[in-house]
Specification:
alpha/beta, homodimer
Chain lengths: ~350, ~350
């Protein structure tokens, strides 16, 4: 019996082993067979179920196939597989206002409590009034005065905790969902698909790096070290107990928008992306920089043309103009000329959010 | 015969398969058996053959064991396993002068060719003279005027090529080796040991980020995105052909030294290291910051007390004072008090370089 087993195993290409190893091998062979089935299943998985068939989905699939097939002329070495994603308007909703701006507005009462004199100055006075119409009419540059005040002056750990607390309770005004639910399901699928093919997915956002790092792992599967964003300085010092602390300063270090995106990518990653995804004029330079590399480079840009399920804004293609997430006709024309793929939310996405629309 | 094979395979826990799958499984079973042997070998590998037995080696081994054993109270989740390494004096030789300063000096003739007026100004005039004694006597802050001039004004790709060309030909004055050969073998072993245990190894250097990124993968196995260093701004613009370019600017963005190290770590990684390695006052804040985290945190500091095989400098422990890589007695005392492990080059390292001493 022993001999028979050994000889059949020898025929199966398995080297002879001692009794202890044999038991391990049994378990591992079982595990291997399961893995084999999983691998076969993975190859057949529809990674993009929320995408409609069409040019956008095909462009993604073709890019992944040609850059991961070692026999392809466009093969990209695994360590060079970098994909960068804008966040606001590309991965989650940016209307009617950036989520981070809502966070800053919600922080105003606490800021005024710490510094009562603020209550007499704009834009804090208007924000405190709670008059939504008046707040909506504040000029953007006036409104943005709140941002450095709301995002600095505390230890980095205290800031992270405040953001976590806010995310747990705040709800958006249209769907009454947590902001972290307002991610676009097709883009989350796309990130997973790229990662399953060896791509490192980075977020490259004009939003706050420290802000986005709090939830990027949970909602996108992107770890803190792969979040590049607008960043203020921090200052190293010592607390009352003599322990080292890092305090967030109101001084801008990296403005990760427009030309700041490729500059930030060079600073933080040191490699040119092979794929980049955006939705507005703030992403133009990142998409240009990506496309200008050699070999296969995928640039895609989301067009918000779906007022029913999300929002419709441009002003490209005759869509309503917008101060937030502006997608100009000139940008649309550059996309056509430079070979970027425009993603029509209306036509290319079968489903927009995990929760429904 | 077929039936016998199937039944023995069924006993081995392998599900029945079709003929095509069977062949794949044969190959994979062979590969699996090999992997099993490799895994067993890895567990028994002496990862630190260039270390002498002693407190330093034991501290490393104990740290790795306790943070990677899921049953340990000090277990660290794989994604939190971050180890940061200073470069100059910790991973490679920094004497008699930082390699990057030598690079900058070697660039002076090219700089003067581009801008002949420089030849009449200090420190360029002295450097051009080739008088080694006079160059050695230039005050450090005078000498450092060359650095921004040597490291900016060109496209990032052109800079990378210049560094590669320089590394291929430049030799150090003592061992007449390429600078990339002057890495400390025990530290390279330590990085591999940590990586084999799920740690992400980062370089956190006061040296230039773009400079170190050129060779970090090749000599340390550290990819560009895991090099944090002193960084100047880059400027995004368009070349004569209309293609996007990034040009290195002479403006400092991140001074990754002293307090700048934990600040840079927060900016670039967004996680507090569980292990950090340095050798001078420039690493103090990084080591403090690392130790101040909860759970197991390893801080180690290299003491250059080996004039025979490398260099001896402090002034800690009565060693000669040094402007480069200063290790003060106060730092030594802090190491003792805060539980950092001092690595004595003389006593803890069996071999210093791969090439010999």
């Amino acid at each position: 019996m022993r001999t028979g087993k050994q000889s059949s195993r020898r025929r199966a290409g398995v080297p002879l082993m001692r009794r202890g190893d044999r038991r391990t091998l049994k378990t591992l062979s079982g595990a291997l067979a399961s893995l084999l089935l999983i691998a076969q299943a993975a190859a057949q998985t529809n990674w993009l179920p929320s995408w409609n068939e069409g040019a956008a989905k095909q462009a993604v699939q073709k890019f992944v196939q040609s850059t991961t097939d070692p026999a392809s002329a466009q093969f990209v070495a695994p360590e060079e597989r970098v994909a960068t994603f804008d966040q606001d308007g590309t991965l989650w909703v940016e209307k009617p206002m950036y989520s981070q701006v809502v966070y800053c507005l919600d922080r105003v009462p606490a800021l005024v409590k710490e510094n009562p004199a603020l209550a007499q100055t704009e834009p804090f006075r208007t924000v405190l009034s709670g008059n939504r119409a008046a707040i909506a009419h504040l000029p953007t540059d006036e409104l943005l005065k709140i941002v450095p005040a709301a995002l600095s002056g505390m230890r980095v750990e205290a800031f992270q905790q405040e953001v976590r607390d806010w995310l747990a309770k705040a709800r958006d005004p249209r769907w009454h969902r947590h902001y972290t639910e307002l991610t676009y399901l097709p883009m989350v699928e796309l990130m997973k698909y790229l990662r399953a093919n060896g791509y490192k997915t980075y977020i490259v956002t004009g939003g706050g790096q420290d802000f986005v790092r709090v939830f990027a792992q949970q909602i996108y599967g992107v770890p803190p070290e792969q979040v590049v964003g607008t960043a203020g300085e921090t200052k190293y010092s010592y607390g009352n107990d003599g322990k080292p602390i890092l305090v967030k300063e109101p001084k801008l270090l990296l403005n990760d928008d427009k030309a700041g995106k490729p500059e930030g990518i060079h600073m933080m990653i040191g490699r040119r992306p092979h794929a980049a995804f955006g939705n507005s004029t703030g992403d133009r330079e990142m998409l240009e920089y990506t496309r200008a590399g050699g070999g296969a480079r995928l640039a895609m840009i989301v067009l918000h043309d779906d007022a029913k399920r999300e929002y419709a804004y441009g002003p490209a293609q005759g869509l309503p103009d917008s101060q937030v997430g502006t997608f100009t006709q000139a940008l649309y024309d550059e996309a056509q000329k430079d070979g970027w793929v425009v993603i029509s939310m209306k036509n290319d996405w079968r489903q927009v959010f995990a929760f429904a629309p």
